[in-house]
Amino acid sequence: MNGAQSLIRTLVACGVDVCFTNPGTSEMHFVAALDDVPQMRAVLGLFEGVATGAADGFGRMTGRPAATLLHLGPGLANGVANLHNARRAHSPVVNVVGDHATYHQPYDAPLQSDIASLARPVSCWYRSAASGRRLPEDVAEAVAAAASPPGGVATLVVPADVSWSEAAAPAGPRRVPAPAPVPAATVEQVATVLGHGGAGDAVVLVGGPAMNEKGLVAAARVAQATGSRLLAETFPAVVERGAGIPPVERLAYLAELVELQLHGARHLVLAGTTSPVSFFAYPGKPSDLVPQGCEVHVLAGVDEDVVGALDALAEALGAGGAPVARPRLERPPLPSGSLDAQSAAAVIGALLPEGAVVSDEANTAGIFIPGATAGTPPHRWMTLTGGAIGQGLPVATGAAVACPDRKVLCLEADGSAMYTLQALWTQAREGLDVTTVVYANGSYAVLAMELGRVGATPGGRRARHVLELAPPPLDFVALARGMGVPAWRATTAEEFAGHLGRALAEVGPALVEAVVPPAF
Amino acid sequence: MNGAQSLIRTLVACGVDVCFTNPGTSEMHFVAALDDVPQMRAVLGLFEGVATGAADGFGRMTGRPAATLLHLGPGLANGVANLHNARRAHSPVVNVVGDHATYHQPYDAPLQSDIASLARPVSCWYRSAASGRRLPEDVAEAVAAAASPPGGVATLVVPADVSWSEAAAPAGPRRVPAPAPVPAATVEQVATVLGHGGAGDAVVLVGGPAMNEKGLVAAARVAQATGSRLLAETFPAVVERGAGIPPVERLAYLAELVELQLHGARHLVLAGTTSPVSFFAYPGKPSDLVPQGCEVHVLAGVDEDVVGALDALAEALGAGGAPVARPRLERPPLPSGSLDAQSAAAVIGALLPEGAVVSDEANTAGIFIPGATAGTPPHRWMTLTGGAIGQGLPVATGAAVACPDRKVLCLEADGSAMYTLQALWTQAREGLDVTTVVYANGSYAVLAMELGRVGATPGGRRARHVLELAPPPLDFVALARGMGVPAWRATTAEEFAGHLGRALAEVGPALVEAVVPPAF
Predict the structure, then answer these.
(1) Which of A268, A475, B259, B483 has the fewest CB atoms within 10 Å, measured from its CB?
(2) Whole-angstrom distance, CA of residue A343 vs CA of residue A345
(3) For residue A303, which of A476, A90, A102 has the smallest C-alpha distance?
């Protein structure tokens, strides 16, 4: 058995049975070995950013890692931006990168580069496999490292000669530790703080593992029992939300709004997230968004048993069994007339299917969607965790592979869509059930807003031109059809409802271009 | 004057007046400053790989750097693959990367990452600007570092607060050293080796700066005077070729063929390139392609005055003024019938305009093109220097910005085209005179070949599936039109000639999809 065969068998033995790939010559033994191990599903992406983003989406949905298979340093580099997002999402990913044969590396062949330097910024674990004898152990350790709380990108570099040489038998799974329980004393301390505070002077800020129904119910009980405000981190990896699930307002992207959300807080309790900071720096504005005089208390870090800690806290506050407010099923009516961010959001709210998975990279065009979908049937919502645009379509692709029985709805800004549009082809090839909405406002609208916020001069003609996506206008209908995905354009609310309704009713990939005016 | 304004003014003062960009919030002051400095042309790419590849193409054509402007670590990462190619091409590039404000970096905001670790593998020079006071000097040094022989990627990281704070006045250009002259003793030594050898037992291998007409004439004289074989490196940045220019055969991509090309050589003289090594490692095959018993002599490194050294060598061998063979103007006739790699090459040979710039990433579909174009009017040819696919369209884009009076012909493989197809939009926006041919063979054909070469099992159904680009078939006509580029599909030689002829006759971007069978 050669290294590649033992690698794939070990992955499968460790529960990794999907590989998102764009391989090259140094990875051909891995590709050849796919025929020996039918349990491994290989999904081709036409660009590495699709593969890494899909692995992120798969990890978010299943809580277990998919593998990637990338080609040397440049192939890895193409996938780094979405690995950055995966790192911020704490998604488990086994990032397999092929390399030149060990003895070939000193020759500085054209594709030689410093893979370690490129990988380390996004990796929680890094190793270059030294031999076929050790390879199965390396693979099992990589899987365990990726899956260990809080989850991360484990990069395993596999030189070509390690792939093609005789290898040890496949290894079995390593033990993956459960999230560490939070000490009772910590829970007691936080309970004391919240129990003694005045109503409204404390904020419970949740994130990460707390963003499922169980965590949100516990957090809502804590907030209800103590009169605290309940808020969530700005960009969680996945949130469970909709009718019947305690709602949680997310911290705003704009620091000015976070200031209002946290105004007057004297205690900030963190559960599964970190202390809020400004997304960017702005002249004269603080980076740290914790109000002056507010004390920060860590109930549970993202690698700990956050939901258990929230449950224990609710218990300690005597709120364990209290019922919490849960929103009723309530959809906005289908709007008519002009199509803009608001009417488009109402259409989404009217039509979002139960159990849907939403990949949200709508950016400025999406500001009304959370409100319009708050009362729709329960669903899961993924956000842009690391700020590296081009995440939405790939993450939707991986989520669809992970959840073949759910409808995936990808909400995309036009500028972000153009980063990794190749994901549409993978959706078509694999017959994935993803409906994509591209908000075509013809501009990097968020930057038009930021141009003012950073205190730059208002922006003359030449500056604005750099932020505009037209002329020429992008035709997303043509682009999608060019990759085998049926597509339609909507310019009114009625058209949007018609096209989106049809796309959601059928199984398989589809795209609707929603022509909307820019918000800024 | 703020840092961004002084930065741009310094760039312009140092001769850098084009910036290929995809900016974000941390770069907004740079964008705003574009209105203050009309001498700086900003060219927007919809993905960073377009911007970095375009800067490479601009550098190859002009010999002077363009700037990039990229957004933090993820934006840089998206551009790294084409910076890798630029590094291998020794292209001068001033790679400007925005960063969070210095005081904001410790807060680990979502977009925070280790920019230095991502940049170093592709950079010949790296600095993060510490203050507005020092910034103009940093910029001038970066330009000089990029332009110093042999040329490279100088990465200057500009934190947002350095951009927006008061800065020193713009700096003037630093002195850029000329390529170092090769010592007379070295020339003499090589002359002795070549002068005393038997005909045919020496190979003169040229590359880098020797690949223009002057260098090739000198090299041809040397070869002619000594009976040596003249060969060129496999993937030069730019070659001047065509009727009237001494032709030079390039070392093959396949090590097996290089073995034949170098067979029997006892002396290998290097001028502007390095000793040949195998592109990839293969089981049981050597990495070093220098034949056993062959002595390697370095006439001139890529950072030295290679053409001067070749001239001096020709002089020392008494071949200074001898006329060399120059190919006559000779085009293949327009073929008819089926369209395949061979007939498509003949069409290119029949129609290639004088003075054209060719960006060649046709890969397996392009094997007959060099032969078919050898006698066409003089033109320049750029190759995939670093092996990171997705170079062709961006490099063509930058070359067109650099050479508005030349027709740029981009020869693209379908798999490679899908990496950075967004370049078409930039070509449309800027009205660039680029004709793109996409060879649609529906497969990663080079990998289908490599699957066998690496000694992997023949490749079963599942392995082959990973190397196929259909189903669904990619429709490049739709994809191009979706980005504002007129496009046509050709399935016969006549159709290809018709569409290509029309595209070449008009000014502005166009694309022809040439449907060809895969070579492997």
Answers:
(1) B259
(2) 5
(3) A90
Q: Number of C-alpha atoms within 13 angstroms, CB side, residue A73?
A: 29
Please give the pLDDT value at position B420: 98
What is the CATH architecture of B3-164?
3-Layer(aba) Sandwich (3.40)
| Residues in chain A closer than 8 A to B457 (CB atoms) | 32-33, 35-36
CA-wise closest residue to B27 among B13, B44, B10, B14 = B44
What pairs with residue A153 in β-bridges? A93
Residue B312: both structure tokens together: 């001096």
Would you say residue A11 has pLDDT above 70? yes
Of B172, B114, B398, B69, residue with least CA distance to A119: B114
The answer to whether residues B16 and B63 touch, using CB atoms and an 8 Å cutoff, is: no
**Domains B3-164 and B341-515 agree in fold:** yes
Peptide bond into A74 cis (omega under 30): no
> From residue B217, how far is each of A301, B211, B371 by CA, in Å?
69, 10, 20
The alpha carbon of residue B193 and the mean position of all alpha carbons in its chain are separated, in whole angstroms, by: 33
Query: Using CB atoms, which residue from B34, B103, B110 is nearest to A463?
Result: B34
Q: At how many degrees (to 10) do helices B48-62 and B423-430 cross? A: 60
pLDDT, tens digit, for every residue of A50-90? 999 999 999 999 999 999 999 999 999 999 999 999 999 99
Number of cross-chain residue pairs from A and B with Cβ atoms under 8 Å apart: 321
Going by C-alpha positions, the residue among B33, B26, B23, B24 that lies closest to residue B170 is B33
Q: Say yes or no: B166 contacts chain A, CB-CB below 8 A.
A: no
> What is the strand order of the sheet A295-300 is part of?
A249-250, A229-232, A202-206, A267-271, A295-300
The mean per-residue pLDDT over the stretch A379-384 comes to 98
**CATH topology for the B184-316 domain:** Rossmann fold (3.40.50)
> Rounded to the nearest 10 degrees, how much is the dihedral formed by the CA atoms of B303, B306, B312, B313?
110
- Decide if B81 and A75 are in contact by the 8 Å CB cutoff: yes
Shortest Cα distance from A21 to chain B (angstroms)?
8
Confidence band for A455, pLDDT divided at 50, 70 and 90 = confident
The interface predicted TM-score (ipTM) is 0.97
Q: Does any CB of chain B come closer than 8 Å to the CB of residue A423? A: no
Sheet holding B357-361, edge to edge: B239-241, B379-382, B357-361, B408-413, B434-440, B510-515, B487-490
Look at A472 and B482 and tell me if their CB atoms are within 8 Å.
no
Report d(CA B478, CA B475) in Å as an integer.
6
Low-confidence ranges of chain B (pLDDT < 70): 197-199, 456-459
Q: Name the residue ranges covered by the structural domains of chain A.
A: 3-164, 184-316, 341-515
pLDDT computed for residue A197 by the predictor: 67
Give the pLDDT confidence of A385-397 residue by residue, as tens digits: 999 999 999 999 9
Tell me the pairing of strands B125-128 and B153-159. Answer: parallel
Tell me which CATH homologous superfamily contains domain A341-515.
Thiamin diphosphate (ThDP)-binding fold, Pyr/PP domains (3.40.50.970)
Average pLDDT, chain A: 96
Nearest to A161 among B26, B117, B281 (CB): B281
Residue A185 is predicted with a pLDDT of 98
Measured in degrees and rounded to the nearest 5, phi and psi for residue B200 equal 90, -10
CB A496 within 8 A of CB A512: yes
